[in-house]
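Q: I have 297 residues here and want to know how they pack in 3D. Can you give me a structure?
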Amino acid sequence: MDIEKLIEERKKWMTWKNIAPLRAALDGLEDAECKVELGDVVKISGDLDEQKIYGTAKMLMPWRKGPFQIGSTYIDSEWRSNVKYNLLRPHFDLKNKRVADIGCNNGYYMFRMLEDEPELLVGFDPSPLYKTQFDFINHFIKSDIVYELLGVEHLEFYTEKFDTIFCLGVLYHRSDPVAMLKSLYRGLDKKGEVILDTFYIDGEEEMALCPESSYSKIPNIYFVPTIKALKNWCTRAGFSGFEVLETSKTDASEQRKTEWIEGQSLEDFLDPNDPSKTVEGYPAPQRVYVRLIKDKK
């Protein structure tokens, strides 16, 4: 695969008729010296055109990941991504490492990772909208983060191999999870690690839930494994190390509908009479966070 050619071809996606007006709005933003705070809320302050910033941020809806604050504009994203980041933060050190974030959305996690001073930080996500959200935030932060309009299937062909790869909330969207795990494996340097987050179901057996049509109203959820089944997938993909870091249940303190999204959110995905179940009757979403090691030797 000619990855450089593919990268150049996908730049044309930014001229799509639904994206071009958003890019034009970004081109109209003024340069400003800004102060950046990389806390739970990624905050940007300075001598800013508040009206233009608010209008541009609204054009870029829906905001799934965050939160961000630019001047007086508080982007209250659907996901309070700081909850997940803070859960994982004790488990990694990225200083001087080559780092990738697969399915990086608008880059919230990567902006937070800047505090670790990685050698290289690359986001992979084939969404022109999320890339435009990233460029909007990075217009003020002015980081060296690289954002590629690529998917996990392109990782092994990329020009860099990575020390740490984050893959948060992607695996269950793939109809062949083992093939995806193999792509992550091939994207790592020899001693590399993957920080993985995915849905799981309780159980001691090596099995997976296979939703008939949707899971929590999400149609592209293919498999929700027990932790033992997930470990088997990772072993089959070639990983020699599997460590459970944390588990958590998704609730309204982390995911909820706000004025910055369109459509429904978690409260609409659960059984109104029994929040331990999805509207389809499956176990409600819970997540497992694991560290995968390519080669423990």
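Q: Anything worth noting?
A: The first strand starts at residue 34 and ends at 38. The chain has one domain: 3-263+275-293.
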